Amino acid sequence: MIELCKLPYAYAALEPVISAETMTFHHDKHHAAYVKKANDLAAKAGLDDLSVEELVVQAKAQGDTKLYNNAAQVWNHGFFWQSMTGDSAKPSGDLASAIDASFGDLASLKTTFVEAGVGHFGAGWVWLAAVGDQLKVVSTHDADDLLTASGDVPLIVCDLWEHAYYLDHQNDREAFLKSWFDKLANWDFAAQQFMAARAGEPGYSYPAMADQSA
């Protein structure tokens, strides 16, 4: 059974880029709804003993679109919460070197990331991902993520669904993405993910019920 993961910070910790009101609705309503639906569908499919990662992969392999969409959205949101911090600092060390090698510098990565998000039609996600030492920016539609993308380890992700930013930025997705990148991107988390990518490990996993203690 999947449990709604806790936020790693207070609802207001990401203001003014993302308001406490948006975080409350996004986490307590949207994310919670995906958790409930994924649990219901997993139970009907006899897959409720799987981890979220296993559930996403299995649902995709079986062509169970409804289960895949809801399980993937559970995982995507858990990863999204970790991709943000109210105390953002610029990347350093090996990650900074990889950014320079792959994009030229952090400013060029920001341009690529924002352009990918702005140019993405409809709902979805924009990711910074690693394949070994190489970095790339990719966007995925609707619930799609990188769990089933061979070799791609996500470092950070930004939510492009309108409920992620509309209360605070209306239809200005570009302004949201620029502010998000500058002020909220969790480069410490990204560095941990990059270390996992270089070691050939999967990195982040959605917390199991036993990991939900305060």
Structural write-up:
By secondary structure, this protein is mainly α. The chain has two domains: 20-82, Orthogonal Bundle (Helix Hairpins), CATH 1.10.287.990; 93-198, Iron/manganese superoxide dismutase, C-terminal domain (minor pseudopilin epsh fold, 3-Layer(bab) Sandwich), CATH 3.55.40.20. The protein contains eight helices and three strands, in the order αααααβββααα. A three-stranded antiparallel β-sheet has the order 2-1-3. Helix 1 packs antiparallel against helix 3 (65-82), helix 2 packs antiparallel against helix 3 (65-82) and helix 5 runs antiparallel to helix 7. The mean pLDDT is 95.
Provide a quick synopsis of the model.
It is built from eight helices and three strands.
Which H/E pattern describes the elements? HHHHHEEEHHH
Kindly report the CATH topology of the largest domain: minor pseudopilin epsh fold
Mean pLDDT: 95
| Strand order in the largest sheet | 2-1-3
Q: How much helix, percentage-wise, in residues?
A: 40-55%
Count of helices?
8
CATH class of the largest domain: Alpha Beta
Beta content: 5-15%
CATH superfamily of the largest domain: Iron/manganese superoxide dismutase, C-terminal domain
Number of individual domains: 2
Amino- and carboxy-terminal Cα gap: 19 Å
| Inertia-based shape | globular
CATH architecture of the largest domain: 3-Layer(bab) Sandwich
| Overall strand count | 3
Poorly predicted regions are none
